[in-house]
Amino acid sequence: MITRRHMLLGGMASLTLWPASQANAHHTTKFKKSFKLDPRYKPQRVRYSREYAPGTIVVDPRNHFLYLIERRGRARRYGVGVGRAGLAFKGIATVDRKAEWPSWTPTKNMIRREPKKYARYAGGVPGGINNPLGARALYLYRNGRDTYYRIHGTTQPSSIGRSVSNGCIRMINDHVIDLYNRVPLGTQVVVL
């Protein structure tokens, strides 16, 4: 069962669907710091001069934007958080798996780099509001193999517009839900 909760994200009202088992827990959660999303990172339709086929996702990590090409010269743009130096994905992949409220397990490399932070999660974290992948995840594959990079929601909305992740592309939960609903399996993803 899914429960609807109205939230204020990035200075605008939004509707978020929470797993029913966690809806009440979310309602009682107190946030330590309020967050206001920079308006340039809110979803918006923009001109996009690069030539990609409609339906392609293009990620510009340097400027912290993800573009969903709608037609030649036009795109829907979202703000994103990306991988810190040396950890970012680059190149072409496809969305070969999609998940709502995905579970998460840190990679072996994440545990090796920061064992104090990640080793306790080696068995995985079930999907839900406290899961680092947030509300939705698009799994990036290359040549039929999982890259272990994702486009996903986040429990850290202040990371949007920054290069701080372990390589994944983070989005505000409501924004990744919107993107998730717009793209089918097989969607090409180009990370510049």
Describe the structure.
32% of the residues are buried. The protein has helices at residues 20-28, 108-113, 115-118, 173-182, and strands spanning 2-9, 12-19, 44-47, 57-60, 65-71, 74-79, 82-83, 91-100, 136-142, 145-152, 163-165, 169-170, 188-191. It has 192 residues and is an alpha+beta fold. The protein is globular. Helices cover 15% and strands 38% of the residues. It contains four helices and 13 strands. The strands form three sheets. The chain has a nine-stranded mixed β-sheet with strand order 3-6-5-4-13-8-9-10-12, with helices on one face. It has a two-stranded antiparallel ribbon with strand order 1-2.
Secondary structure layout:
Blueprint: E1 2-9, E2 12-19, H1 20-28, E3 44-47, E4 57-60, E5 65-71, E6 74-79, E7 82-83, E8 91-100, H2 108-113, H3 115-118, E9 136-142, E10 145-152, E11 163-165, E12 169-170, H4 173-182, E13 188-191
Parallel strand pairs: 4-13, 7-11, 10-12
Antiparallel strand pairs: 1-2, 3-6, 4-5, 5-6, 8-9, 8-13, 9-10
